[in-house]
Amino acid sequence: xxxxxxxxxxxxxxxxxxxxxxxxxxxxxxxxxxxxxxxxxxxxxxxxxxxxxxxxxxxxxxxxxxxxxxxxxxxxxxxxxxxxxxxxxxxxxxxxxxxxxxxxxxxxxxxxxxxxxxxxxxxxxxxxxxxxxxxxxxxxxxxxxxxxxxxxxxxxxxxxxxxxxxxxxxxxxxxxxxxxxxxxxxxxxxxxxxxxxxxxxxxxxxxxxxxxxxxxxxxxxxxxxxxxxxxxxxxxxxxxxxxxxxxxxxxxxxxxxxxxxxxxxxxxxxxxxxxxxxxxxxxxxxxxxxxxxxxxxxxxxxxxxxxxxxxxxxxxxxxxxxx
Length: 323
Description:
mainly alpha
């Protein structure tokens, strides 16, 4: 997700601004720069991109820091490196900066409690501000800059929340089409976990419905057209359909490569289940879905989570009903 988001940022921020990127996958950062060089052509100049070796370096050099990481432990580790008590305070922003303070935007999907703890650490140890802004839309949405961001924005005094929201929103709109303010710190993540619980279930249901219709002798393209014009339509059926040729650009077009990995969906489902236990909410289908995704990951590895459909196909019993 972070790679195409960074591409959209570099394409849309002022040419004079510098985009600083940092990733443990050095091959990814090298490729990012090479692609920009190639796009600039022989006679052009590379638009400003700098590779940082560590997250602390990014924070020291930047006004706005956007993090996109897989797990709560990763997010905590990055912010520990940035805010380590043995390190000096982050340097002041340059005298030419018009920003009131540093801004950390975390787009990771983690549990609301961990995010709130990080927000408190940022706000008590520095003059910076922190918001949670997880996104929805998948890799397809990240490439097309059509992501939806769910914003958890703290209020410090009076209308401080409104001012911070107004500062954050246009930044996120460089990478997406919609920013929904959900409330104070952690509220963006609460919304994301509810959304991704629904996604986990609807992805399975889409795979089962497509598999059922095909086993009953229906043409998959006609079936998808019917579903997507009827009450069963959802993101998994329209944008991320598991049948090749139905959703242009979907992972099914590329052998389920390059999308939202099954393991990440398992992680998000687990976070939603944890939040449900803590809040007393009942999730009747969660355990069944969790077990299914565990089996799919064991069988299919790091493929996009729509590969549930292929896993179901392998388990089919009996023949197709012919009409």
